[in-house]
UniProtKB/TrEMBL annotation:
Pfam families: Peripla_BP_6. This is Branched-chain amino acid ABC transporter periplasmic amino acid-binding protein. Keywords: Signal. Residues 34-383 form the Leucine-binding protein domain. CDD domains: PBP1_ABC_HAAT-like. The keyword Signal applies.
Length: 400
């Protein structure tokens, strides 16, 4: 279903914000509209569901704090689907119809490369909660991210695999060639493997995010007798690949990238997810005080521990909330025209230092996140395969 951006814009202004275009919420109303553009349908919804939980906890948490001088944040949440066209439509609707002050989203890097240029051109700050491919903040002055890039997260995990099994020598790599993040991440994994004096990259297998059967690639790989298999893909394909590797007899370590860093792969590979190592920018066991607060707020609402995608989405809203709080000390927000508020907010975002569930973060002038700690988790499934968790294996400090 293809709709023109203008149709979507009109629809967004009338139907989604519940009022006509002329009455669309202005920044003068008490609640400041913050756009949330995440995948609630399609293959990336496995991440989007966790992200939505994170932003909902954040909305309550920061509105209760009263930190924005009596103002509140009102999240304008829209489903981008999992493709580029959906993200582009939602960005246009949020910017022109809902007149948001900024945007949290989209879910996939693959979508960001199409949607972010629209926000950049309109002068609307975007804080990406989960885009980890190379080149995201480089899209423009208004684009930043709280999701650390693949180049800082992935190599740590290779090292952790070697600590668990120092005898690893032969490494096989799988990646989904139709996804921007997966292509970016596999490059980093492959480089780390090639440059490691003890490791040999024995094969690189290409898959698609829509694939459900990996038998041909698995058979080709297992004949090469790898001791470690490294996977860059999204949740559904990644989960199925893990399951089929085990079903076809592979017993060595499996290391997954950001795409399998979600509890939503558990129903896909069930008991066979057990033992998979995952490179993480967040682990719920992080002892930082802000994470303890977040974990408690999250557990009170959802009766479970938050995953990385929830924590990063919370953090993206926090970056807006904290920046607005600082800005409201210096300026009367109601007196700023929307374009000026968006601009001032973007500058404030880049200047800040934030105590978040991810630990302390700040941004480079380019909008790249600087984060101190990274994690390696290992999936631990219950015997019946019905539930599981990411057990913290390693917390690594990154040198500034
Ligand atoms: C990206 C990713 C995905 C796995 C996150 C949803 O890291 O697209 O950049």
């Amino acid at each position: 279903m293809v709709k023109s951006p203008w149709f979507m814009l009109a629809l967004g202004a009338i139907a989604l914000s519940g009022c006509t275009a002329t009455e669309s919420p202005s920044v003068n109303s008490n609640a400041l509209p913050l756009g949330v553009a995440l995948a609630q349908t399609g293959n990336a919804a496995l991440y989007g569901q966790e992200q939505l939980q994170g932003v909902r906890v954040a909305e309550e948490f920061f509105n209760q704090s009263g930190q924005i001088k009596g103002r509140t944040l009102r999240l304008v949440i829209q489903d981008t689907g999992s493709d580029e066209a959906g993200a582009v439509n939602v960005f246009q609707t949020l910017i022109n119809g809902d007149r948001v002050i900024g945007i949290v989203g989209p879910t996939l890097s693959q979508q960001a490369f199409s949607a972010d240029p629209i926000a950049e051109q309109a002068g609307v700050p975007v804080v990406a909660p989960s885009n980890t491919a190379r080149g995201i903040p480089e899209m423009g002055a208004f684009i930043s991210r709280v999701s650390a890039g693949v180049e800082v997260v992935a190599p740590t995990a290779i090292q952790a695999a070697l600590e668990i099994n120092p005898n690893i020598r032969r490494v096989a790599v799988f990646f989904a060639q139709d996804d921007a993040f997966s292509r970016s991440e596999t490059e980093i994994f492959q480089k780390a493997i090639r440059e490691h004096p003890k490791l040999e990259l024995v094969t690189v297998q290409q898959t698609q995010t829509t694939d459900t059967n990996f038998q041909a690639q698995i058979n080709a790989t297992l004949s090469l007798k790898p001791d470690l298999i490294v996977i860059s893909g999204l949740a559904a394909d990644g989960g199925n690949l893990i399951r089929q590797l085990r079903e076809l007899g592979y017993q060595g370590l499996i290391l997954g990238g950001n795409g399998v860093n979600t509890v939503n792969i558990f129903p896909v590979c069930r008991r066979l997810c057990n033992g998979v190592l995952v490179a993480q920018a967040y682990n719920s066991e992080n002892p930082d005080p802000m994470n303890v607060k977040f974990r408690n707020a999250f557990a009170a609402k959802y009766s479970q521990a938050p995953s990385q995608f929830s924590a990063q989405a919370f953090t993206a809203v926090q970056v807006f909330a904290d920046s607005l709080a600082r800005l409201s000390q210096a300026k009367n927000l109601s007196e700023l025209p929307l374009a000026d508020l968006r601009q001032a907010l973007n500058q404030e975002i880049l200047k800040g230092v934030y105590e978040t569930p991810l630990g302390e973060i700040r941004f480079t002038p380019q909008g790249e996140v600087l984060q101190r700690f990274f994690y390696v988790g290992q999936i631990e499934m219950s015997d019946d395969g019905q539930s599981g968790k990411f057990r913290l294996v390693k917390r690594v400090e990154r040198q500034p």
